[in-house]
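Ticket #4471: structure output looks truncated?

Reporter: J.K.
Steps to reproduce: submitted the chain below (120 residues) through the standard prediction queue, then opened the result file.
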Amino acid sequence: MSDKFCVMLTHAKDDTDKSTVAFVIANAALGSEKDTTVFLTTEGVQWSQNGFAEDVHEDGFLPLKELMDNFAEAGGHILVCAPCFRKRGLDEDNLVANARIVGGAVLVELLSDGTPCISY
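Returned output as attached by the reporter:
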């Protein structure tokens, strides 16, 4: 069984429910002692920006900003798709904690050893 886990997030404010659940699952993976990565792609790259999650709070869950902060504080990694990030003209100087912009090869390398990945 792999000691790593990946959550791919393709949504932003177009589906805050899926976005919230993605970070709930990512935090659960960390709590299960998995080296956990959230890969933000397509619209999901919006979550890489400080302040973007401030107003998102789905009923029954912690606010998304709190989930993201907890994830970063617990050592979770956030990888941000470089072409998706550039396409949207986002600010590299405004990244959330533990986020880094990467090319697709980094995701391929992460998953090539059999790391499980779920997508939201």
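Triage note (M.O.): checked the attachment and the full token line is present. The beta strands are 4-9, 35-40, 77-81, 99-102, 117-119.
Status: closed, working as intended.
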